[in-house]
Structure formats: structure tokens, C-alpha cells
Amino acid sequence: MPLNGIMSPFFPKEDKMKRHVFLIIWVVLLELMTVAPVANAQQTMTVQVKEGELRATPHPLGKIIGKTLYGSKVTVLEDSGAWKKVAVTNGNMKGWMHNSALTAKKIALKSGQHDVQTSVGHNEISLAGKGFTEEIENEFRKKNKNLDFAWIDRMEKFNTPDERIREFIEKGGLSLRVEGGKP
Amino acid sequence: MDKAVTIATNVGETSGIINQQQGESLRQSTAAVSRSLEDFTPEQEYYIGRSVGAVVLTKYPALANANAVAYLNLLGQSLAAASDSPEMFAGYHFLILDSDEINAFATPGGHVFITRGLIRCCRTEDALAAVLAHEIAHIQLRHGMKAIEKSRMSEALTIIAQEGAKSFGSPEVAQLTHAFGGAISDITNSMINKGYSRSYEYQADEAAVSILERIGYNPRALIDMLSAMGKHIKPGGTDFAKTHPSPENRIAELEKSHEKTFSTNGKTPLIREKRFKEALISLLKTPPIGKR
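^ Those are the sequences you sent over. The predicted structure of the assembly is below.
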């Protein structure tokens, strides 16, 4: 084997050396495993929150200039701290989104939703529409009728608009310092 | 990633450094490890969080005080905006629990619960901010999700990752529901009974200080709140006493790394005192449940 020929001057057949190299391989593999999918500029990412907000500035309370839905594709134009300036693939909207609203993974939606992907490759973990979803919650609730979801649904409807949060912060003598921009 | 593992192990086998058996077992174990926490999506965490919250609400009733809850949500949303995880699948939502126990819970879905008993330990808005920042920090640091047993994760993620299946038949649904139930049980057991590890609690305190500083709250308020809690908490109780390190230990841990931060004793702006009292006065005046 060519590789053997090249490697043999460097790795004489001693157990100690074999173990040492085995360890190196293991460490390298561990390093590789901790690297998450990373998006480069001009790469496509997908919105992984229910309603993605596009903001005029890279700030959690930056003015909202557009909204996108779960599973929407965006192109990354720019990076700033924990924020990305994106362009929504189907449409004209551009704006800033926080990294936690985006994923480099693919999202396969249930048929009937927009942007249906018809195939998910092997080893790509498919996301929306599979696994722990509303369907599984419903099954779980059938088996656990004592659980109180009424207040969960109610609390999820509490709506706190950005303008009120901005006012609360300003009037309270506070100010939200975020790397990358002002609100 | 699996490709890289395959190449690396093939190289290892070819050069005689590892034998074929070792190569194979490496490939299998890395495949198992790569199905981990990161493979859950925010949507899945949201559904997990909903059920975890529903379990909490079987043990503690909700407090339907509109003013107090509105104020709590304004405060909570401000702090969430200052965290490293401002975007949850369906956002953050805050609720008060009608209990005199000193307790708070945060689900992976962004649902945050705080008891009247714990609110009573807060003299100022800054102190309440410190409590909420700590809960948000648990979410930011994924402590709830980390409480899920590895075997449950593998069980669930193996089914979810099935190639080509766009929807599941009854056997898969049953398996997923079983894994889901297990995950809920693991998380609620940690949150309500065992508590998170000490290091998780100290990490959440640290992250809470960062959140408070980013928005301009006095981080010293966390220390003050812990002192107040120390006076109210009864050792051996079923609340924070059971699930958290003692307030004294938490204070000591914080003071180790934040000597300068906590030395300043700034005065809370009047407006914050005023709105804190106005929002919570009726809540704090309600007699403890046993005395109603």
C-alpha cells in the first residue's frame, strides 16, 4: 500500500507509537465532531423560529422592517457580532436577524407548507414536521390527561410589543448595549 | 462530519495504525455521539418546553393577576433581549405561580414561571430582574435539555433521522411519544426534584450577571436577592432549598469572581422603584395561602 510505504519510516512497529497515533486520530475526530455547520457569506441559511423578524439594525430591539416564516430560505450578506444581514430568497426583503433565529441545517417541511423539500439526504437530520411536534404532543396529552395546557396556551398569547419594551428600558434609566448597533 | 470520520479511520486502517475492528468501532461510536443535543431544533425544544410547563402547572396553579403578569413580561422580555439567546422558536413568556414556596422554573421552550414566594424575596425591580435573568440563563445555557438522558436522545433522534420518511406510522409515533414522555420526565425531575448540578447553578448566576450588566441593572441586586432568600428559605424545604445550592454558597461563588462589580452600591432610580411597587403591590399584599 502506498500509504504504508510513506508512513513506515515515521511509524516503526511499536505499540507505544501506535497508541499515540490512535490517540491523535481520536482527538482530531473529537475536534471535528464539535464543529457545527458554519455559514459563509453568500451562503443559504434557513429560518428556524416560528416568525423571523428582519430588523433595520443588528440589535434585538432594532426597528422591524419585515417578517419571514419558519423554513424560509435566506442568503447571508453580512456578519456583525451575533447578527447576520440577510436577503429573503423569495422576495425583496432584506434585514438583520440574530444567529439564533437561523440554521445552516436543512429544514424539511410537511407537504402543504411552503418550501417543501422532497428529499432529505442520509445523515442530514430533518427538522420541522418530524419528531417532537404537535402530533407527538397530542399523543402525549392523550396518555396524560391531567396535564394543564390551558395556561400554557394562554401564556403564549401574552404579547409584549417592541415599542413597549423600548419604552420600559428607556423610562427605567436602562439601556441595552449590544455589539453591532443601536436600536 | 461522518465523511471526515470515515476518511480518518480509513487512513488509520490503511497505514496499519489501527486495525479494522478499531476503525469500525470508532465509526459507530462517533455516529452515536453526533446524534446529540445539537440535533434538536428550536421547534422540538418548544414542544418539549410546552409539556414541561404543563407538568409544572399541575403542581402550582397560575396566578391570574393581569397587572403583575404584564409587568413581569415587560421586564422578562427586556432581559431576554439582553441575553445570548434572544430568539426562541415562539419567544419567551412569563407567568406567576400562586404559591408561597420560593421557586422558579424555565422550560426549553422559553416558558418562565416564578412563584409569589420568590417575588416576595425581591425588594426592587433590579432584584426581580436578577431572578428572571438567572432563569433566562438556564435556557440560554440549555440546562433543561442537558437533563435529558442520553438513551432518550438516541431513542428519539434515531427515529427522527430515518431516511426518506416524510411522516410516521403508528409504531414510530408510539416510540417517539415514549421518548418524548421520557424526556419530559428527565427534565421535570431535574427541575422540580433533584435540581440542576451546583456548577449549572453557578453558571446561571454568572450569566445572569452578564445579562444584568448589558442592560444596566445593578448586578449587586443578585447578591441582595440571595441574601433575602437566605432569610426566608427553610432548610429541608421542597422548594429552592432542595434544588439549589444555599444562597450563602451562591453569594460566595459570585463574590469570588466579581469583587469590583459588587463593591459599588448604586441607588435604584425612583421610576424603577415606583413601577415595581405599583405592579406588584396587590400581589405582595395577598396573604399566604395558609392564612386565607
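Residues 68 and 280 of chain B are 5 Å apart (CA to CA). The radius of gyration of chain B is 22 Å.

Shout if you want it in another format.
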